[in-house]
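Could you help me review a protein record that somebody else here produced? This is what I was given.
***
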Amino acid sequence: MARVSTAAGIVGIFAGLWGVVCYTLSCSSSLASCPAMSAAPPGVSGTVYAVLAGLLVLSSLVTFVGPKSVFYASALLGLLIDVSEVMNYADIASGPFYVTLVLATLSVILGLLSARRGTAFSEQLHPMNLPVFG
């Protein structure tokens, strides 16, 4: 079974890449196929959404090698993407809107679980803490 922290990093990367791809698609076509442009607060371009998504990718990559506190940053970025999406959704939400919400919400939940999760062994029961004889 995969560890929660690994799953949090992978979901965060997918959520961020989804946001960057959506932004790129919506900027390169006349029809917005992803919710990137409508995700920004009124008066701000979809670039804010793309920056949040890019930062989510970077923070999720850092979670594989960095301290556990980086998971809080990933969770916060996922939450900001969720809030941005919900505040600026269209009257008729499309499939990509729901995909964005699911990925960002999973990133928040798994990030918080990973940041709060303790070690599997206590210090006394850890296998590397064997008694030394001699």
User: Anything to note?
Assistant: The chain has a mean pLDDT of 76. The two ends are 39 Å apart (CA to CA).
